[in-house]
Amino acid sequence: VTTLVNTSNKGPSTKKKGRSKKAHVLAVSVEQATQNFLEKGEQIAKDSQDLKEELIAAVEDVRKQGETMRMASSDFADDPCSSVKRGTMVRAARALLSAVTRLLILADMADVTRLLSHLKIVEEALEGVKNAINEQDLANRFKEFGKEMVKLNYVAARRQQELKDPQCRDEMAAARGALKKNATMLYTASQAFLRHPDVAATRANRDYVFKQVQEAIGGISSAAQASSPTDEKHGHAGIGELAAALNEFDVSHFFHFNSSIVNMTFSPSFNS
Predict the structure, then answer these.
(1) What CA–CA distance (Å, rounded) separates 67 from 96?
(2) What is the dihedral of CA 87, 89, 90, 94, to 10 degrees?
(3) Which of 61, 68, 155, 173 is nearest to 106 (CA)?
(4) pTM of the full predicted structure?
(5) Which residues 6+ apart lie within 8 Å of 244 measured at CB?
(6) Do 51 and 136 belong to one domain?
(7) Which segments show compositional bias classed as Basic residues (predicted)?
(8) pLDDT per residue over 57-115, tens digit each?
(9) CA 79, CA 40: separation in Å to the nearest integer?
């Protein structure tokens, strides 16, 4: 967008004045694309327990900027040779892109916050298992731990699908695998310790398994919060493509760029 703003002032056009059928089609497309995006954003804001007010505000900003873009693109379509109307559309596109990006970032932050909340609950349940005083107490606490583990695995699996950096995905997958493996051994190791608390080997074995579970939880947390250099690189490339597309009077690339992000963020895999 910055590149476009800096290179868009080319003075009045010498082309024949008239209406652009293609521009009108694109104006309708942007209106529909924005509406689809808003519907997804509203649903996420409604369902989110974290950053709800911020998400709602971001959705409303997208709605506002989308309406501005709709009017600007319609005016431009009526007079595609007008440098003034073209400039107005470019500014509207820039504002809409900024609003969309902010909503996507907030939605991602809310998702990470939710995962971290689940991790904290699992850590507390894990500590409860460690503090069990007898086998019946262990069974009850481990049952609760297992329930929280199922919830965590669901959220972590979803986050793993969203990660763009292959290294982060691999780290998340490895941490989830280690958590599942060691959580399975946790009950047996804890039970053996409660039966033979005076045997040093049973205590050492239980403590080792607990440490492995804790490290796996930490691995999930680290992978979930990691920022990918790959994402940043692709992000700058996308903005460059947007500038080039608008500079050619073809905003279809702008919507393709945004719809690609929306599909990545709000696709079925996002909620699976």
Answers:
(1) 9
(2) 140
(3) 61
(4) 0.65
(5) 3, 253
(6) no
(7) 13-23
(8) 999 999 999 899 888 888 877 877 778 888 888 888 889 889 988 988 888 888 888 89
(9) 33
Q: Same structural domain for residues 91 and 149?
A: no
Domain that holds residue 163: 132-225
Residue 4 phi, psi dihedral angles, 5° rounding: -65, -45
Task: Enter the tokens of residue 5.
Answer: 């703003």
How far apart CA 85 and CA 167 sit, in angstroms, is 45
**CA 143 to CA 14: how far, in whole Å?**
76
Q: Which CATH number does the domain housing residue 96 bear?
A: 1.20.120.230
The H or E element containing residue 56 is: helix 52-78
Q: Rounded to the nearest 10 degrees, what angle do helices 21-47 and 252-266 cross at? A: 20
Whose structure tokens read 């919507």? 255
User: Do both 163 and 204 map to the same domain?
Assistant: yes
The CA distance from 191 to 197, in Å, is 10
- CA distances 34 to 59, 68, 106, 224, 267, Å, are 11, 11, 17, 29, 16
The pLDDT score that the predictor gives to residue 254 is 38
Q: Could you give phi then psi for residue 79, rounded to 5 degrees?
A: -145, 70
Alpha carbon of 226 to those of 41, 69, 105, 219: distances in Å?
24, 34, 14, 11
Contact 110, 50 (CB under 8 A): yes
